[in-house]
Amino acid sequence: MAEATPRIELRDVRKAFGAKPVLSGVSLKVMPGESLVIIGGSGTGKSVTLKCILGILTHDSGEILIDGAPLARIDKRGFLRHFGMLFQGAALFDSLTVWQNVAFRLVHARRNPLGRKAARALAIEKLGRVGLGPETADLYPAELSGGMQKRVGLARAIATDPAVIFFDEPTAGLDPILARVINDLIRALVREIGATAVTITHDMTTVRTVADHVAMLHAGRVRWTGPIEAMDACPDPWLQQFIHGRAEGPIETVR
Fold first, then answer.
1. 1-82+164-255 domain in CATH 3.40.50.300?
2. Pairwise CA distance, residues 146 & 174, whole Å
């Protein structure tokens, strides 16, 4: 039986800024419906990897494939229509109401944009899926708590029922209880939609809640990758130091 085509695949991807290499040969596969979490310390290339997949940054060499097709050859607008994104800090538009934030892409779509009434109704339905009632629809982001803003960002990410969802540090700035709520929501929604998910984080609670597979970046390379069930038993000292937050180990720390 032929192996399924990865939804996203990176082959020896390299990216440098001037003389400073950031990605030094990253190779990864994300299968359809899989939730991959990329971990690693600050400056290891997690965000740059994500930006290269999205086409925000152009990688210097190697290949990025979407459903088996090189990223450079696919219709970027077509690809972007099928992905959702939860930004670090939610990144809501301050001047728009909650429902306008959630439905932004649907209202401003080049093809078949939704009318105001239909867009508001859809936004309220998505807000309900993240645990927010219709009374929040006409509020502004400044009127929401940090946890509610994150939920609105999640509602926006799933508004189009995307095939792929990217999560950038989804629990940054949240207390442990709210972080657990958001992690559980992410896991439930990704399964419900059947989406492929890519998350970058250094929060091990997020890793253990949402990951099917984990990839650890270190020094611009994939140090380890495997199913979440194999992570704790892996003897790699770099991985063990990171997942347990130890000061001592091969990963250099600033003292």
1. yes
2. 7
